[in-house]
Specification:
Distance between the termini: 44 Å
Strand content: under 5%
Largest sheet: 2 strands, antiparallel
Oligomer: single chain
Strand order of the largest sheet: 1-2
Helix content: over 70%
Shape: globular
Structural class: mainly alpha
Order of helices and strands: EEHHHHEEHHHHHHH
Number of strands: 4
Length: 293
């Protein structure tokens, strides 16, 4: 069976691959949206934290004997703790200054982290052995779906929409929004605003670390993997609307699929289609698809 002159299995395979890439876009842009939406910080080191998550899983396995399943829990906690230290030790000093200073600081931090990992592991990176449970395939009739890809997509969807639900539909999320939208009033009601800010930043960074662990068994781990994806992730955030949680999730997944289909119908444009979509969206709706006008 063919669709638009292309075999259905080939199209389905590219859609699944696009969903895998879109899952990473969604998780990373979600972390950025959480940080920007609640703290007004443009965290350019987000890609570096994603890379730390992947290398953290590799180090945990090779040096400590921690398997993939435990790494899914422990590594994001460790990366989130690093985020807490960064917020406490560096970003807090920039409070009240132009957001450009935070952007420059996090950009410099990402370069430092990349350089350190390059010295330890080299530019070519490492391969993380895929756990046996993720090695199989599912025959869906019209295509063969690797279990590893289904796992990445499934986990990303659960994490992304659980995060959206907590922030947008629970008392905890309302507390976080109140603490960032009107910190003086929130503090007057007894909320520990600095602690909430720190924990929110750490959670956003932990999401990047979790995405890195998921990516470890799917792609080659290199010190540049974060910088290679972060520009596209920023484009996703802009298209979805700066600070929009739902916009980050939906746009990340959708752009992953669009990118995958572009590889089939127009391979030369696959590397730039995300930015083409961004340009069109900004012309029509400058605040983004889900942003507040």
């Amino acid at each position: 069976m063919e669709i638009f002159g292309k075999p259905l299995p080939a199209l389905a395979s590219q859609i699944v691959l696009g969903l895998v890439n879109g899952s990473f876009y969604a998780m990373l842009s979600l972390g950025l949206a959480v940080i920007f939406g609640t703290l007004n910080i443009v965290n350019f080191a987000h890609g570096a934290f994603y890379m730390l998550g992947a290398f953290g899983a590799f180090f945990a396995l090779t040096a400590l004997g921690v398997n993939y399943w435990w790494a899914l829990l422990l590594v994001p906690l460790g990366v989130g703790l690093i985020g807490v230290l960064v917020e406490r030790g560096l970003l807090r000093w920039l409070k009240g200054l132009d957001p450009l200073y935070g952007l420059l600081l996090t950009f410099g931090l990402s370069l430092i982290l990349e350089g350190v990992l390059r010295d330890f592991y080299g530019s070519s990176g490492r391969s993380y052995p895929r756990p046996p449970a993720l090695n199989g395939v599912w025959n869906l009739g019209f295509m063969v779906l690797p279990v590893s890809r289904a796992w990445v997509i499934g986990v990303s969807l659960v994490v992304c929409f659980a995060t959206w639900f907590v922030i947008e539909r629970t008392k905890l999320g309302a507390t976080l929004r109140a603490a960032t939208e009107n910190p003086s009033l929130a503090q007057a009601f007894g909320l520990n605003v600095p602690l909430l800010v720190t924990l929110t930043f750490g959670f956003g960074v932990a999401l990047a670390g979790l995405a890195g662990v998921l990516a470890a068994s799917a792609v080659q781990i290199t010190p540049l993997m974060g910088s290679n994806i972060i520009i596209a992730v920023f484009a996703v955030v802009v298209i979805g609307g700066m600070g929009s949680i739902l916009g980050a999730i939906v746009t990340g997944l959708a752009l992953g699929v669009i990118e995958g289909l572009t590889r089939v119908f127009w391979p030369e444009a696959s590397a730039t289609v995300v930015f083409l979509v961004m340009a069109i969206v900004l012309l029509v709706r400058p605040a983004g698809l889900f942003g507040k006008t």
